[in-house]
Amino acid sequence: MAAAEQDLLEETIQAVRRRDRRFSRHAYYFVLDALDYTMQHLGREKLTGEDRHVGGRELLAGIREFAAEQFGPMADMVFERWGVRAPADFGEIVFNLIDAELLSRRPTDSRLDFVDGFDFRETFAEKHRQSLDRIAAR
Q1: Which stretches within the chain are classed as H helix?
Q2: 3-31 pLDDT, tens per residue?
Q3: Where are the domains of the chain?
Q4: Helix axes 25-42, 56-71, angle to 10 degrees
């Protein structure tokens, strides 16, 4: 991303945060990175238009996997520090980004797509246990 684009993105995220102070700027950048991660894993990064769209449930699954890779068992603590306490908070972040015209949506997209997505603490603890089991099996 060019410096001018990065500056514009930062300015837009700061404007979003002036309207809604609940979440750290890092949470917004994380969601954008998790969206890229999800699109790559779904094979949609080279598509255009509607074919490129990632729904809320798909994004939430990508967020879970990306967070596990990035932060391991500390992911729930990172989210807490950012003000993200439940999967529904990611829906709020996404819709704030939509309102700022950084993301687009389909008419069927809803904040409800992010409700009851997964339990942070249990999900990341289980992923950590799986990693330890793989290491121990070697």
Answers
A1: 3-19, 25-42, 56-71, 75-82, 87-99, 120-137
A2: 889 999 999 999 999 999 999 999 999 99
A3: 3-137
A4: 110
Q: Give me the amino acid identity at 17.
A: R
Q: What is the pTM of this model?
A: 0.88
Cβ-contact 111, 92 below 8 angstroms:
yes
**Residue 125 confidence class, pLDDT cut points 50, 70, 90:** confident
Q: What Rg value do the Cα atoms of the chain yield, rounded?
A: 16
The structure tokens listed for 21 are 């102070």
Hey, what are 25's tokens? 């700027």
What residues contact residue 80 under an 8 Å CB cut-off, 6+ apart?
Answer: none
